[in-house]
Amino acid sequence: MTYCLAIALNKGLVFASDSRTNAGVDYVATYSKMKSFVFPDNRTIVLLTSGSLATSQAVINAIKRDLTNPNAEFDISKGNYLHEVAQYIGDLSQQEQKRHADAMEKTRSNNESSFLLGGQIKGQKGKIFLIYPQGNYISASDETPYLQIGENKYGKPILDRIITPSTSLEDAARCAIVSLDSTIRSNISVGPPIELAIHRADQIEEPYHNVLTTNSNMYRSVQKQWNEGLKRAFDNLPRFDWEK
Amino acid sequence: MTYCLAIALNKGLVFASDSRTNAGVDYVATYSKMKSFVFPDNRTIVLLTSGSLATSQAVINAIKRDLTNPNAEFDISKGNYLHEVAQYIGDLSQQEQKRHADAMEKTRSNNESSFLLGGQIKGQKGKIFLIYPQGNYISASDETPYLQIGENKYGKPILDRIITPSTSLEDAARCAIVSLDSTIRSNISVGPPIELAIHRADQIEEPYHNVLTTNSNMYRSVQKQWNEGLKRAFDNLPRFDWEK
């Protein structure tokens, strides 16, 4: 499994992903699930992947292929709106899944992938999209300004408590680390390092990018301080009548 | 859906359940999912249910039927070990599911139920079991002294951080309320009131039982103080380099 998260804020976009992939329990590996594409003075795009690693990689390869093919009908540097890029990635994903559909059915395997797409086209607002395995997609709303793919439940409560569109990029990034770390603690199929990217609104450039290994100072001190803070919060909860 | 939780501690057992049931989104109702049975000087038993309400109710009815039938082969007041009671409830659940299996298959419906069984037979240690829809069951371990049924993921991280066998009954009960409340906030299929039961080790009597409605003081102040504590914990997280 996987856990990836994208947050759309007034001040920009925050992305986070874990790095564990597994085919069964005896083939566990570490892969980056985050890819960014920058077209200076035009658009910044970040793509997060979950599901079949083969499909995810094939889609990334097809994106790169189309970018270098002058005869390609479309590529991610084109389209006036980011949802056109979402549609294009959904189409690539469906094409790749269909290519192997017969073999998948015969072996009762699954090669579905989901994607989180985020970015900003110059002059427009930054946007995030969740692209389903079926190729259709949704964008986030002001009421729920984040989207998740993969093991999304463990890390959802903290997002629901903290994130609003006016949250700062840094707070949202900290919340993303906590959301990822809670998931990593509770589900063995999600693992470090945590990749983090921050796109500041209207800065069409390579996003801030950081790989938080379990040895990194930031990750360790978030873990330690969050754990201590939770324990303190827990110790302050009200007593039952008979404890007073 | 549902979320039920049982925790086995050195000092006793803690149980919690939500109260929402739904058949589709247009038939949502409030039902208790917690039932206790006390046989003075012999055993205390608490049963939590999730899944098909029809199957859950039929199993409870069968338990009561067998208790009043002097010719019943087995009932929950019998058996030298609590796992025999778990096996019996698993059998009742399978019988009930099989009775309707053809009709269920024809309408592609599902009448599976899962159960959490906990209790203590006098002179033995208190125990908790998770009974699967297939009728088989597992008990908790010292490393993971809790069991969950239903929407178990949202509320798991806080249990993983707080609960050990030496946690006090009151702390475990507070942790259960937080775990339930986090799930209620993040998943509309889980809803209040929260039912809470506490069985003190070696006290073979009616467990402490409380129904925490959204208006109850205990529930409201746990919600408020937990929310404030989390916000404080969050505000104390380390800053990124550029924030310093």
Automatic annotation (TrEMBL), chains A, B:
- The answer to whether keyword Lyase applies is no
Q: Write down the superkingdom of origin.
A: Bacteria
Q: Which UniProt keywords apply?
A: Proteasome
What name does UniProt use for this protein?
Answer: 20S proteasome A and B subunits
Q: What is the lineage of its organism?
A: Bacteria, Pseudomonadati, Pseudomonadota, Gammaproteobacteria, Alteromonadales
Q: Does the keyword Magnesium apply?
A: no
Q: Name one Pfam family in it.
A: Proteasome
This protein's GO cellular component annotations are: proteasome core complex
Q: Which GO terms describe its biological process?
A: proteolysis involved in protein catabolic process
